[in-house]
Amino acid sequence: MRFGTVMRRRRAIALAGAGVVGVAGATAGVDAWLRASGDEPDNPAADAVPFYGEHQAGIVTAAQDRLHFVAFDVITDDRDRLVEMLRDWTAAAARMTAGKDAGVIGAVEGAPEAPPDDTGEALGLPPAQLTLTVGFGPSLFRDARGRDRFGIAAKRPPALADLPHFPGDALQPEISGGDLCVQACANDPQVAVHAVRNLARMGFGVVSVRYSQLGFGRTSSTSRSQATPRNLMGFKDGTANLKAEDGRLLDEHVWAQAGDGAPWMAGGSYLVTRKIRMIIETWDRASLAEQEAIFGRAKGSGAPLGKTGEFDEIDFSAKGADGQPLVPMDSHVRLAHPDHNGGARLLRRGYNFVDGSDGLGRLDAGLFFMAYQRDPRKQFVRVQTQLARNDRLNEYIRHVSSGVFACPPGVRGPDDYWGRTLFG
Amino acid sequence: MRFGTVMRRRRAIALAGAGVVGVAGATAGVDAWLRASGDEPDNPAADAVPFYGEHQAGIVTAAQDRLHFVAFDVITDDRDRLVEMLRDWTAAAARMTAGKDAGVIGAVEGAPEAPPDDTGEALGLPPAQLTLTVGFGPSLFRDARGRDRFGIAAKRPPALADLPHFPGDALQPEISGGDLCVQACANDPQVAVHAVRNLARMGFGVVSVRYSQLGFGRTSSTSRSQATPRNLMGFKDGTANLKAEDGRLLDEHVWAQAGDGAPWMAGGSYLVTRKIRMIIETWDRASLAEQEAIFGRAKGSGAPLGKTGEFDEIDFSAKGADGQPLVPMDSHVRLAHPDHNGGARLLRRGYNFVDGSDGLGRLDAGLFFMAYQRDPRKQFVRVQTQLARNDRLNEYIRHVSSGVFACPPGVRGPDDYWGRTLFG
Questions:
Q1: Confidence (pTM)
Q2: In which domain, by residue range, is B158 found?
């Protein structure tokens, strides 16, 4: 995030390989550049988020403003190569989230003709609160042909069940699923893109990009320090989201526990992704009254219908002068509410997207929904079953991609790596 | 751009239509919301850029960090409707660039069931330096079937010539051309997207979205107050760009003059767009020495090869110990330099893009090149002819879309409108 004054990434660049100096005489220039990097304005959005910990960062971390999500197919059957890549990824992620390069930029000593170990487009940019969060899809445990390529089929968590078909689903297989996923979030899209691109580069021969998605303007706050943002329908989204400050509730609703049937997932969480295309041209021609009745909230304030403040408790029993419920029976806020879903709650972390236009004169836009939870069978599936059947909003949206991933616990330190509890 | 503290858009929302209050009781909530909007931190990136002036904003305006570019087909043959839309667009653009809604959010008095005149997703966001810049494509003057639909064929500027075919062009017609274009730039993508979406909404029945493109991390600085950003090849891009401070040079190279053959364009400029896909997986496996030889600059500092500082003058005659030019004959910086193109200069204003992946395991990423100039025939076409023939970079890039647009002079005030000098 640049702001007139440009903040520069503090990092050590190794540009001193003999080959480079010989060609470019670049060393002195880099020194000058490094000298210019000393003074950064105090800007929390530019800071680093700790990478190591009990849980992976990027789940309860206060949601950053930009997303680059990528799903990979694993294209090798060699378990050792997969694990080696996960180790390399972990080391690179620790560096990049701290605002450093993925690896040495310049020529490695003795190999002046080697490609750089970092692609360079984030040089001079701050950490920008980059988080990288990895997940394992059901197909990693047993592929479409039924093979247990990596000897982990028996460790597949019961909670990592395939999602059922929901009414109205219009899923495109080529942008659904995936053996691995990486969620990169940052306050600068170039930092998020750089991280994903370098992981893809390092994974050459082991993984292949299946699909990727850019998002902006997060649609959920995950901390009480954040105001509730708006989705592309113009409504505040995520008012009642689980938040980082909800310690006990997080253990109940977000973090997998040792007794949940897959001990290696203790401290991890399950991610459900849904790309939800909005039919915004139709939506934009609906009246404000219709729009508010569909969401069950006022568009301006975000207040539940019949209330005045965004965070006022919803009164589902209140009726208007006409005897009808103020919050309609088929409104989104009613159908999605924990009270009507056996207490099921989600930690949502979605982003708006615009992917250009669709060739039919319409913007290809909507919500890339992401939600973390302890057990999708009891949480996302329960809520979505209700929404898919009854939500009036369905007239204006289409679910076009879907994914479910087991995100392992956090990396404890430099000797640990993403997936150690599964593969180690 | 949100930063922990959320800055809210100062705006008057009319949510007081009887229909709305009746349904939602929303007024009190909105009042509370407005009260919360008073204190914004002092942040230039959140400010408004003046809309009215001699030239359109968004050309020499210090380049913002985010882009939403859209090209439209005009789907009516009715000149009056087209002009009416341009008037409506101009009024909405003046409002939105000032941080206001495109129109009244709430129900219009007497029409409680009307759709809102603003889609709402930018509520609470600051102006974020939004600029909206409009351009007219060659097909507006005479369409593909040779028709002069709007009686303006005789006014087509000589400088608005169709671009020639360049060697290596791999253009996709469905993402090229366009009767009209709008360049929306802002420091918050949601603000840029909101603006384009509302113009598209207002243009219903008159225009249809032909293609649109999101970009981030501008690749050119257009003011000396900005540091040079990096493209997705990791190199600084735009070091020698024309800048806002280059007053006399701008008249010579950027602004159309009254004597140039189309008096209605005086004070306007011509925009060339090229979507340049990068073959980044191949690029990422090239050595640093190779990469630097291709650009002719050091990757870290941006210094010309053989020099030490980014802004050092390039010495095209310097030779290395091997007797070869330090800046190779087929390097990008040499071939694109004004000295080797009859003095031709451009004001570049491009953005990086990542459009997900391409279905072949690769990121679909690159540069959305945009350049403003007084006459593309003497500027872009001249430089690109040289680059297309000889640039070593061509091995790693592919031009997949192309557009050329006449961007009229600025709107002088509330009674003026985009295109008045052409249609009025």
A1: 0.89
A2: 40-99+125-423
